[in-house]
Specification:
Layout (H helix, E strand, L loop, with lengths): L6 H13 L3 E3 L2 H5 L4 H13 L4 E4 L2 E3 L14 H11 L4 E4 L1 H6 L10 E5 L4 E5 L2 E7 L8 E5 L5 E5 L1 H10 L1 H4 L4 H11 L5 H11 L2 H13 L4 H8 L9 E2 L9 E3 L4 E3 L4
Parallel strand pairs: 5-7, 10-12
Antiparallel strand pairs: 1-3, 2-3, 4-5, 6-7, 8-9, 11-12
Length: 266
């Protein structure tokens, strides 16, 4: 069982509540609570290990606005992600399974939060939140919308069209093909995404494989020739072939226009 709060712990929580802040940095309490540096380190470390506060990185902690019931607290996913990105002065946008779930394409509730960003790579754990941070070039970020959460925070999501392109582009990371093809067809049929927007997102954020696969899909979905030619002109001539379904055997009919081996249902 957790120990009760001592005098130093109570003073810490009174301090952050009075100031209405959500983070604490090493050194801040030395002056505010008249602690020595070792005493401050021990206090923050102990509260973090016991689950009263959450360590974002060495020297930076997230703290609850009110004392947690039962002494156990963890920040929400967006609070954890926003805090980390603000600390490194980075830009991010959510991606992967949590985005697919938000748009209703996948019912799976992800254990990790995935985010493209321009500062940090690798996994981070903040409280109970697991973050998978994928560092990309600034040019790979964009086509986003800001969504305000129930607790007043702002989360950055990709647009529907951008998320669909990511499902094809980053299929290996998200295990999103061939499911992504069905999502694209459904979004086009229900007119939630326009073919022109999908082509534009593919040109801006897709690599060669993404352009070829989405081109083959759009042609089979009956998209107009003008848009198909726009996508086709961005591709250099090549005799190489790529599989429609990357994880399946490379056997099937060949779409010569797009250089795709149709090794699965189209």
């Amino acid at each position: 069982m957790k120990k009760g709060l001592g005098e130093a712990e109570r003073r810490l929580f009174a301090y952050v509540q009075m100031r209405g802040q959500a983070t604490l940095r090493t050194g801040e309490l030395v002056k505010a609570l008249r602690l020595t540096a070792p005493a401050e380190r021990n206090l923050l470390s102990r509260l973090s290990k016991e689950g009263w506060i959450a360590r974002a990185r060495r020297g930076l902690y997230l703290v609850p606005r009110t004392l947690p019931l039962g002494g156990k607290w963890t920040p929400g996913e967006i609070l954890a992600l926003n805090t980390l990105m603000e600390d490194v002065k980075g830009t991010y946008q959510l991606c992967g399974l949590s985005v697919f779930n938000r748009y209703g394409w996948d019912e799976q509730v992800p254990a990790r939060v995935y985010a493209y960003n321009n500062r940090v790579s690798g996994t981070r754990r903040i409280g109970a939140v697991q973050l998978m941070l994928i560092k990309v070039a600034d040019a790979r970020l964009g086509a986003t919308e800001e969504v305000r959460t129930s607790d007043g925070l702002v989360a950055t999501y990709p647009s529907r069209a951008r998320a669909l392109v990511d499902a094809v582009y980053d299929w290996a990371r998200f295990n999103s093909l061939p499911r992504g093809y069905r999502w694209i067809r459904a979004e086009l049929e229900k007119k939630r995404v326009a073919a022109a927007d999908l082509v534009e997102m593919t040109l801006r954020y897709g690599d060669v494989g993404t352009k070829r696969r989405i081109g083959a899909l759009l042609e089979r979905a009956g998209v107009g020739e003008r848009l198909l030619r726009k996508l086709e002109k961005s591709l250099a001539p090549s005799s190489g072939l790529i599989p429609w379904i990357p994880t399946a055997r490379k056997r099937g009919s060949i779409d010569r226009r797009w250089g795709v081996v149709m090794n699965g249902a189209a």
